[in-house]
Automatic annotation (TrEMBL):
Pfam families: MoCF_biosynth, MoeA_C, MoeA_N. This is Molybdopterin molybdenumtransferase. Belongs to the MoeA family. Catalyzes the insertion of molybdate into adenylated molybdopterin with the concomitant release of AMP. GO terms for cellular component: cytosol. CDD domains: MoeA. The keyword S-adenosyl-L-methionine does not apply. The keyword Metal-binding applies. Keywords: Magnesium, Metal-binding, Molybdenum, Molybdenum cofactor biosynthesis, Transferase. It comes from Qipengyuania pelagi. InterPro entries: MoaB/Mog-like_dom_sf (IPR036425), MoaB/Mog_dom (IPR001453), MoCF_biosynth_CS (IPR008284), MoeA-like (IPR038987), MoeA_C_domain_IV (IPR005111), MoeA_C_domain_IV_sf (IPR036688), MoeA_linker/N (IPR005110), MoeA_linker/N_sf (IPR036135). Its EC number is 2.10.1.1. Its cofactor is Mg(2+).
């Protein structure tokens, strides 16, 4: 296939991800692992719970009542003797049951007079007891390699007796914004200039998958300047550019890539927005040339940069995961490219945002989801299910 051919999104994903291997592994404290991807499975080093525990405040009892109350068990302070039938101890939630206890009298059902306990109704044997190892046991595999660590995973790892874990190194990303019109200061910007926004936007996006921005620069529309900026980014795992990826007189990314030693893989994908997307490589370094219009930058970063970084970081599920949502209005027929339409969510479903221009940032900021429209899809009526990608842009928070 000629490199100038337009390829489908699925083919582009396959070509991109099949060439990316996870970066090196490193050991870090589990408390610092939020957002990182496990390099190896997480295996429990202890059993949880370590013993049969009470799930309620009340009394641990042996046999049928009434019971003589002979002591107390608290979390971290077990009662150190066995119970005989007809005996009980006061117990708090999370405390270990004494040997011989077979039921819990919850506090609300208990009456205690002169150290004699009665219950109404009578407790069911085994109820309100957390059995030893019901959550996990020593040697159980708790999380698979490639899992992205989040708050519940950190709590799980600590409870499993794990203090340090192997994760993949954070990918380093160099971001280049190309264009003479761009200004770094959004406050001090002349009328004929444009506050640079794509770099800040993509920096936020790559940070959301655990990558770190190693550099972020504005590059003027001069071939030598673009080449120098690419050379300065040699230590990055991924180079992201925005602007200059098309075929206009001042679109310099492609010739600059050749001068800087990159090999072009593909540069046009049958999607809207974002057709002029460049994918190139320099040794093990990946380069993605994103379109300059901000909506196109966002969509192509969402569809390509974030999956590439997830794969570098060791994720087993690099691609965004779609969900089916009902339409809250009519969706027009699709064209000859796979479209990603901005939409808002309501109790009725996804509502298409009318503004479709690829420079319209206000419409992007209002969007909760991208509707994925296949090539040639017919008109779809209100209530029809459509494939959507949730956006983490705060719009539905």
């Amino acid at each position: 296939m000629a490199r100038r051919s337009v390829i489908t999104l699925d083919e582009a994903w396959e070509r991109l991800l099949s060439s990316i291997a996870p970066l090196e592994a490193e050991q870090i404290p589990v408390d610092e692992s939020g957002g990182r991807y496990l390099r190896e499975a997480l295996v429990a080093r202890r059993t949880q719970p370590y013993a049969d525990l009470s799930a309620m405040d009340g009394f641990a009892a042996s046999g049928e009542g009434p019971w003589a109350v002979i002591g107390e068990a608290r979390a971290g302070h077990a009662f150190d003797r066995a119970l005989s039938p007809g005996q009980a101890v006061a117990i708090s939630t999370g405390a270990a049951l004494p040997q011989g206890a077979d039921r819990i009298v919850v506090k609300e059902d208990a009456s205690l007079a002169q150290a004699v306990l009665r219950a109404d109704p009578l407790p069911t044997p085994g109820r309100h007891i957390r059995r030893r190892g019901f959550d996990f046991k020593t040697g159980d595999t708790l999380l698979a390699a490639g899992t992205r660590m989040a708050a519940p995973h950190i709590a799980l790892a600590r409870t499993a007796g794990v203090g340090t874990i192997g994760v993949t190194r954070r990918p380093r990303v160099a971001i280049l914004e190309c264009g003479d019109e761009l200004r770094a200061d959004p406050v001090d910007c002349p009328p004929d200039g444009l506050p640079a926004s794509n770099g800040a936007m993509t920096a936020c996006m790559v940070g959301s998958v655990g990558a770190e921005v190693s550099s972020r620069v504005l590059v003027p529309d001069r071939l030598e300047a673009v080449v120098n900026a690419l050379d300065d980014a040699k230590d990055a795992d991924l180079v992201l550019t925005s602007g200059g990826a098309s075929v206009g007189e001042h679109d310099l990314i492609k010739p600059a890539l050749e001068r800087a030693g990159f090999t072009l893989d593909f540069w046009r994908v049958a999607i809207r927005p974002g057709k002029p997307l460049i994918v190139a490589r320099r040794g093990s370094q990946l380069m993605l040339g994103l379109p300059g219009n901000p909506v196109s930058t966002f969509v192509t970063a969402f569809l390509f940069a974030l999956p590439a970084l997830r794969r570098m970081a060791g994720s087993e599920r690099a691609l965004p995961q779609p969900i089916n949502l009902p339409l809250a209005g009519v969706l027009p027929a699709a064209g000859t490219r796979r479209e990603f339409l901005r939409a808002r969510l309501s109790p009725e479903g996804a509502t298409l945002i009318d503004e479709r221009d690829s420079s319209a940032l206000a419409a992007l900021a209002r969007a909760d989801v991208l509707i994925d429209r296949p090539i040639g899809a017919p008109v779809q009526a209100e209530g029809a299910l459509v494939s959507c990608y949730l956006l983490e842009n705060g719009a539905i928070a």
